[in-house]
Design a protein that fits this description.
Layout lengths: L1 H38 L3 E6 L21 H7 L3 E7 L7 H25 L4 E3 L3 H9 L3 E8 L9 H8 L2 E5 L27 H13 L2 E3 L5 H10 L4 E3 L16 H10 L2 E5 L2 H4 L1 H21 L7 H4 L4 H22 L11 H15 L4 E4 L18 H9 L4 H29 L1
Parallel strand pairs: 1-2, 2-4, 3-4, 4-5, 5-6, 6-7, 7-8, 8-9
Length: about 425
């Protein structure tokens, strides 16, 4: 009887040993990834803000429902957040420019209030790569500022320097809709353009940004506008939140020709964790399955679901209320989805890193970075908010990226471009 049992016991012991080995390897991989994540500076170039979250009673020192705040940054090991001064596109009139300027100033003021009054012991504003590293070494979080849409510049070139002095270190010249500075990617839909690239004012703004050392962001401008920016700029450019168009055919992504321009220019594309810019088919399939649930939740919150384009047309107070409920709805539906059977798979961290892989292969590791577009529509399964930032590093480790490469992707490449822009600015200023 014992002799018959021996082979069976032997097989069991091998299976147990192998399973234990596999578990051990997985645990070791996670442990290694955690160590790497702790050592590198994790920098996200695009985090939108709502000024209502920068008050004495409601602010980023608390674990709010939004995707980026200090507790969530600490939980996920997100070290640097570029907070975005965003203004939507409106009429190209004096009144429109003035309203946009005031909106932009309210966001600058909110960010400064966070670092100066609300949580100065937890987060500091950085203006240079050296300051990023100095603040990070102290164990504090780092705030940086980017401008999404040059519309609030209006027709006053002096506003570019004013925004720079307030801490802005990159700016896109348009958003969804043609600005006074350049055409937007949205013109592609109907092949309707205002400037056929850059306006004369836009060309002056490019030169002024070079003079100051402010990075030029091409994530929203049209392809022709980008081509002209690359041609005119004396410094490297960035795409602050775009992915690879070859993998996902959306006009917000960069096609292979644009990637070639960016590489030649010495710039960097910050791959964005935005579902519909990563895998449109997968996003739409799951979205269709969840549509009824989302609508039901929105109704329960007292705000019927409408298209994003329609929401942008609402009066400011109604638009604000709608977006607040929309954010709450997404959180509720995310929880409901966990228990829904046969739900199509979500766009996830794997899809995100597929784009990183493609971009690295196409233009090289030196020209690729990472962004989320959190609180502006971004977020994927596995990186749904700042608290899950480690999962991106884990996926990179799984795919064989080295620590040096992961450091480049998370912050090294972007900070190198910032340094180069500053160096170019010093040369321009020295010439007078």
């Amino acid at each position: 009887m014992k002799t018959k049992l021996l082979p069976f016991i032997f097989i069991l012991s091998i299976c147990f040993t192998n399973c234990k080995s596999e578990v051990s390897e997985k645990e070791q991989l996670i442990a290694n990834a955690k160590e790497i994540h702790e050592r590198v500076i994790a920098l996200d170039t695009h985090c939108d803000i709502n000024v209502k979250n920068f008050t004495d009673s409601l602010n980023y020192s608390q674990r709010l429902d939004n995707q980026v705040n200090l507790p969530k940054m600490k939980e996920g090991g997100l070290d640097v957040a570029w907070f975005i001064v965003y203004t939507g596109q409106d009429s190209l009139t004096k009144a429109g420019f003035e309203k946009a300027y005031n909106n932009a100033m309210s966001k600058f003021n909110a960010i400064h209030k966070l670092v100066d009054e609300i949580a100065p012991n937890e987060i500091e504003l950085a203006l240079t790569s050296d300051e990023v590293r100095r603040i990070n070494a102290k164990g504090k979080k780092v705030a940086m500022i980017g401008i999404e849409n040059g519309y609030p510049v209006g027709l006053d070139i002096n506003n570019v320097e004013k925004f720079y002095n307030l801490g802005a270190r990159y700016m896109s010249l348009s958003h969804n809709g043609h600005s006074q500075l350049c055409d937007s990617n949205t013109g592609e839909k109907d092949d309707e353009w205002l400037h056929n690239g850059l306006s004369d004012m836009g060309k002056r703004v490019v030169a002024e940004m070079n003079r100051l050392g402010m990075m030029i962001d091409v994530s929203h401008p049209s392809k022709e506008a980008m081509r002209q920016m690359v041609e005119l700029s004396k410094a490297p450019i960035i795409a602050s939140h775009s992915s690879a168009r070859a993998l996902c055919n959306h006009s917000r992504n960069l096609d292979d020709e644009q990637l070639g321009w960016l590489k030649e220019n010495g710039g960097v594309v910050q791959t964005v964790a935005f579902k519909s810019y990563l895998n449109t088919e997968k996003y739409e399939t799951r979205n269709e399955a969840l549509k009824a649930v989302e609508a039901k939740v929105m109704d329960s919150l007292g705000t019927p679901m409408i298209e994003r384009s329609e929401a942008r047309k609402l009066p400011e107070a109604e638009r604000e209320a709608y977006y607040n409920n929309y954010v709450s709805m997404r959180s509720i539906v995310r929880e409901k989805a966990k228990s829904m059977p046969n739900l199509p798979p979500a766009v996830d961290v794997g899809d995100f890193v597929d784009h990183i892989d493609y971009l690295v292969e196409k233009i090289g590791i030196d020209h690729v970075g990472i962004s989320s577009d959190f609180d502006g529509g971004g977020g994927i399964e596995g990186w749904s908010d700042a608290s899950e930032t480690f999962n991106v590093t884990l996926e990179l480790v799984k795919r064989g990226y080295t620590e040096d490469q992961i450091e480049q992707l998370w912050s090294g490449n972007l900070l190198r471009v910032l340094d180069k822009c500053e160096a170019v600015a010093k040369k321009i200023q020295a010439k007078g």
